[in-house]
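Question: Now follow the chain.
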Amino acid sequence: MRIHIDNEAADLRDELTLYARRATAVTVAWRVLPLAAGCWFDVETNPLELEISWNGGMTGMNTALTSLRDRFTVEPQHGALRVHHAGRTRRRGEIEVESRVRVRGGIVCGLRANGALLVRERPIAFRQRITTRLGDSLAAAITRGAIEGEPVDAASVLQELSPIPLRDTTVTLRGTLEHGYFLREEQR
């Protein structure tokens, strides 16, 4: 997708934050774009990687996804943890992770797109399974002080915007903080 910041929208103290909104996951600021008038941003969500971490995030690894139907098992191997590809999920768009390890605080999985954290799930315990799903759109908000890869703080959200579709499209941000912002999908 391509995002254009319209001339009227510029207020350099604020930014446009994109994130995946899921009830079972922590809402993380994936992309934070400055409101610089006339700027264009190309936003891609590929390639996707599965991120597995444990020990409070002190240890972790990334695994490339072959499709949005992958199933993984995290298991111990020679004193370390190994992520093993365990087949396909039933539905397209889902990624499933099962923990077969006992670590304090459980394991945490997330999805990274172009190296930036897009979704962070809540910790999963030994013999527990979690399914993460990437929807067909990203949530968007005008924020102040959001940090990429960190949870979106409700206090930093100035205005929620309509979702941005994850397809080949151009979206223009228009408006001002005083009168409100809105997104308009443009035809290519």
Notes: The CA atoms of residues 44 and 151 lie 20 Å apart. The first strand starts at residue 2 and ends at 5. The mean pLDDT is 86.
